[in-house]
Amino acid sequence: MKNNYLLIVHGEPNSIFSEILFKAYKKKVVQKFNRPILIIGSVNLIKSQMKVLKYSIKIKSVDLKNLKNTKLNKKYLNIVDVKYSYKKIFNKVSDISNSYINKCFDIAINLLREKTAFALINGPISKKYFLKKKYLGMTEYLAKKTKSRTKPTMLIFNPFFSVCPITTHLPLNKVSKNITKKKIISNVKNINNFYKNNLKKNPKFAILGLNPHCETTEKIGEEEKIIKPAINYLSKKRIFIKGPFSADTFFTKQNLTKYDVCIGMYHDQVLTPMKTIFNFNAINLTLGLPFLRVSPDHGINESMIGKNKSNPLSLISSINFFKKIK
Question: With 0-12 CB in 10 A as exposed, 13-18 as middle and 19+ as buried, what is 148?
Fold first, then answer.
């Protein structure tokens, strides 16, 4: 396994990801990584974007057919070339890149399926143009692509503290209908297994309620009556889990040191405090797939494209994360 590739899928070509990738190489994060890294994307586009952003990194185009006999030089950007036609080096995000992104993921998933690669990092994707409401997010897209039998789990991971939303990219008015005992149990089990198998740790879980102060009255919903039985069930399975806690008072320094993972009921309930506390020093990890998948915790960020001012910390954290996997 140590010789298998870590894959980086380029993602949306009109994003800040190329810049962040160049900065990671500049800081020698890739060169110091303990396994070979293979990028899947357009050689011509990445070369052109590098020129505009004024970086100088050598590029090697890697032949998939001869991959087993290819020795990668860590000083290079080693790229499996995926053809992509473009008029502007940095353009507005649209669905023009959808076919390119799909091809990149197809190549990556085949390499993972063949055990040539062991894990995947992908650049940001436009939910509006690429997913087009067919999937709630990339977690669900990859689950469908890989025909995963296990329901995937989104974990926003930091070595000191992590969060997981039970519902992901759902409108608030649909959240309560999509909270179930089964989902809570599945997510906690996925995360517990990940910590035990990969980090050799028994994590301590805290779980939030949905309603203000976790109240359940005739005027406020019944969700806490779903959450509490899930906690009781998981406790009987010898998983350390406490709650439900009120979200407005949970994220204190004391709780951040007392627990390893906070389970929230919806996306912004846990991602807003997480990003406030850790800024870009967190990664988006998908559990429940046949492989580990990580995405840097930033988006396309059209307003910053081409300005050479984006923070590479999340991609650096994504790459360094795999050094911790045992």
Answer: middle
C-alpha dihedral, 28 to 32 to 36 to 38, nearest 10°: -20
300: Cα within 13 Å, side-chain hemisphere: 18
Question: What are the chain's domains?
Answer: 1-148+289-326 (3.40.718.10), 158-280 (3.40.718.10)
Compute the distance between CA of residue 214 and CA of residue 218 in angstroms, rounded to an integer.
13
CA dist., res. 236 & res. 95, Å (int): 48
CA atoms of 230 and 20, how far apart (whole Å)? 40
Distances (CA, A) of 288 to 149, 192, 297: 8, 12, 19
Q: Where are the alpha helices (DSSP H) in the chain?
A: 17-26, 43-53, 98-113, 138-145, 172-175, 181-198, 224-236, 247-250, 253-258, 267-278, 313-324
pLDDT(125) > 50:
yes
DSSP string across 238-294: T-EEEEEEPHHHH-SHHHHHH-SEEEESSHHHHHHHHHHHHTT--EEEEESSSSEEE
Which amino acid is it at 38?
A: L
The string of pLDDT tens digits covering residues 269-295 is 999 999 999 887 888 899 989 999 998
